[in-house]
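Design review, sub-item: ligand-bound model
Attendees: FS, YL, KQ
YL presented the inputs for the iron/sulfur cluster complex:
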Amino acid sequence: MSEKNSLNNKAHIVEIFNSIQGEGLFVGEMQTFVRFSGCNLNCAYCDTNHNKETSKEMTVKELANKLKEKTAKIVSLTGGEPLLNYQFIKELCTKYKANYYLETNGTLSEKLQNVIESIDTVAMDIKLESATGEKNRFEENQKFAQIANKAKTFFIKIVFDKNITEDEIENCIKIAKNNKTQIILQPKMPLEQGFEPDVVFNKFYEKYEFVRLIPQTHKFLNIR
Ligand code: SF4
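KQ shared the predicted structure:
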């Protein structure tokens, strides 16, 4: 892509802010979050603002300049589903050097293939039908994980509730085993009455030891 074309590359950005990562393997770390608008899924529990109406269209250059004002070394690309803007992301990574952390729903493997060399960490959600109302996509998740595994750090995050099925547990473990990666289990908040997340944790742990149970800490700490 020529310099002129790349400068015309635009994406809808909902917000850019510094905060403490509240989920996953890097919980507690300062990051600069770039939230892209739009998503290819429609999860029942989604409370993320990723609407185009509340976003601002930005060029790669504008975003890179904005990022220079921020302080965190790690730039978290989040959404929505950031990979819907994979060409923009690819350009951004060449224009602004940082440690890039991609938060993704793990369903767009072809788009990931285009940017994986620029991404340091992939935090891939497996969206379970039992929790999201979206159909399970384990085959696609597996394809995605194989590519994501080329990043320096790759882990799987699973939001679950009391409706998680044995079949879902089996499939998630299979994907993690195939890629020798860590699973972070994240109970859906607020916890339903009588639901014991550790029972689900033990079902995973019996079959796969690289699993951790970590709730969304920013909800306890009252941070965004
Ligand atoms: S994948 Fe994430 S952003 Fe998209 S609908 Fe589901 S929870 Fe919301």
